[in-house]
Amino acid sequence: MKKINAIVVLALMVTAGCSSQRAVTSPEVRQSQVTPPPPPPSPVTKVPSGPVTPMVPAAPSGYGFDQWQTGPLGDVFFDFDSTVLGSAAQEQLNQNAAWLEKNALSKARIEGHCDSRGTSEYNLALGERRASTAKEYLVRLGVASSRLETISFGEERPFDSGQGENAWAKNRRAHFVMQK
Amino acid sequence: MQFFKHVVAVVIIFLCCRICFPLNLLAVEGGEYIAIRKEGIGKIALVLNKLATPAKEEPNISKRLDVIIHDGLDFTGLFTLISPPLNVKDSSNSENVAINFSALDSVGAAVYAGGTVTNTAGNITLDVEVFDISGAKLLLRKTYKGKSQQLRTIGYAFCEDLVELFTGKKSVFGSKIVFVSNKTGFKEIYQCDFDGHGVEQLTNLHSIALTPALSPDGKFLAYTDFSSGQPALSIRDLSTGKTLAVDKRGVSIDPAWRDNKEVATTFSFEGDQEIYLVKTNGAISRRLTYSKGIDLSPSFSPDGNKMAYVSSRNGQPQIFIQDLQSGQTSRLTFSGRYNTQPSWSPAGDKIAYTTWESGDEINIFVIGSDGSGLMQLTQKSGENESPAWSPDGRMLVFASNRHGMKKLYIMESTGQNQRPLLQLEGEQYQPCWSLFRE
Asked: Which residue of B has its CA nearest to A42?
């Protein structure tokens, strides 16, 4: 599945022309960095250094959209036990930020979800970090923090109840739900 | 806070090995107990004679009580129950029926227990006698009373006395297990007796309720509840039924009691996920962790001075121990890449936890609180999770999907005798075993 992910990422990078964006550093690397304590909320994700060229898709389709996400904001997916936003996830968030900019009154809830592997308490924590990572990325792109709320469902509300990497990959996501 | 960033590779912690847990205070009078077993090996060979009942009364009560006592003693794993020989009573003297100790001795029994039960208009009286067979010595004579609906309580009261007689310690009788089940389609908190009897639904929130934890005195139940829209800490006073929802921005995950007054849980209202101590009125008394990354699943040493917990400060989750007075933290687990769900034993010397192995296997391990004596208790049986100690430390309850759906199982603290705890529809998870109630 990693290979497939890589292919998807590569394809998106080529089609979206965002190869200049660099991937977010891994949590292990981040944790080893000695940085002064940042003002809360502490940044979990680094924002791409280059200028962002957001695109609002003509129709909700592609990476962030599937049978469980048919709204205007696409979901983002994560690797196993990871809160790192890959290139495709960042691109989706760029699109989401652009949509939110055009629809300035809209509010969204970001739900963090995990696959069923591992233990449920840890997954509840991991889910929150996925949701807040996505939120912080959007806030750094200029979306008001007050328009985005986060919640973690951990492994409690899987989208695909099946077993195996295909199902698990669908369940490791930050899921956008429009509010009101 | 330097020491939070640098994990000392190996720190020998002189933990609570010598701490006298209150259990010892509960030993039978005089501080001595009856050492019938040969130097710590084997089980006590016990003849449990059928309870006699006055001729006119229905034998039903005595038969049911026989089964309850038999099952209760069997549950402890302390006894070998030997069928009474036919000539167990010497009835040559009809006025005073004597126990035939030589017959008992010849079947290999060390202890004899027998008695009579009477039912007077629904009031049950159980009179029992326990003898050491080799010396024909009376060890215990006691009367238990209760209503006919309380047969199990009556039988277990005798079982508890019998175990205490031979171990000098309180046993599991009277203890409760709280757990989560999705029986109704929602995850709710349930409670049952130590042996799986008497299942009772404690919450009816129609949401997701997780990780129930009973305070040491059994008066409070803490759990995580999604019914407000966020996973929040709830503290229920079990005597009044009143529930306090602790309202904090962000999540609350996996509470555990430090003592009867403070419960610890993970909150994220300050940004990062950290463990805090909360009073039963919902006020935060102290923040305990300061490391970047996930910190969760506290479990306290019996004296409340040390906390085992899960931290992802090094990447994947491992178990750490923090001294709450000095703040000093050391890593406990070095084997396995994903270690979570620590549970500190009631005697203070051990910590049970789970390791997620490669594939879909999660196994329960026990390690000394000083990091020594790692022991694997489950293997090749699917996902085995959420170990929790019995109040006497002899057993663990846990959740396993070894037969498909997740159900509760119990085992001895050595991993032996793994068996289902209860039959209940749906799945069951996250058991917590009460300590002793006074």
From this structure: B271
**Looking at chain A, which runs of residues are DSSP E strands?**
76-77, 107-113, 148-154, 173-179
Number of neighbouring beta carbons within 10 Å of residue B287: 12
Q: Do A31 and B254 touch (CB under 8 A)?
A: no
> For the segment B339-377, what is each residue's pLDDT rounded down to a tens digit?
999 999 999 999 999 999 877 899 999 999 999 999 999
pLDDT on residue B92: 61
Which part of chain B has CATH 2.120.10.30?
2-21+172-433
Q: A83-94 pLDDT, tens per residue?
A: 999 999 999 999
B354, B364 Cβ separation under 8 angstroms: yes
Contact A119 B226 (CB under 8 A): no
Tens of pLDDT, residue by residue over B371-404, are 999 999 999 999 999 999 999 999 999 999 999 9
CATH fold for the domain made of B28-167: Rossmann fold (3.40.50)
Q: Which residues pair with B190 in a beta bridge?
A: B179, B201
Is residue B229 less than 8 Å (CB to CB) from chain A?
yes
Rounded to the nearest 5°, which phi and psi values hold at B149?
Answer: -75, -10
Q: Is B414 on the interface with A (CB under 8 A)?
A: no
**CB-CB under 8 Å, A40 with B270:** yes
Query: In chain A, which residue's Cα lies nearest the Cα of B354?
Result: A119
Ordered domains of chain A (ranges, CATH): 2-17+55-179 (3.30.1330.60)
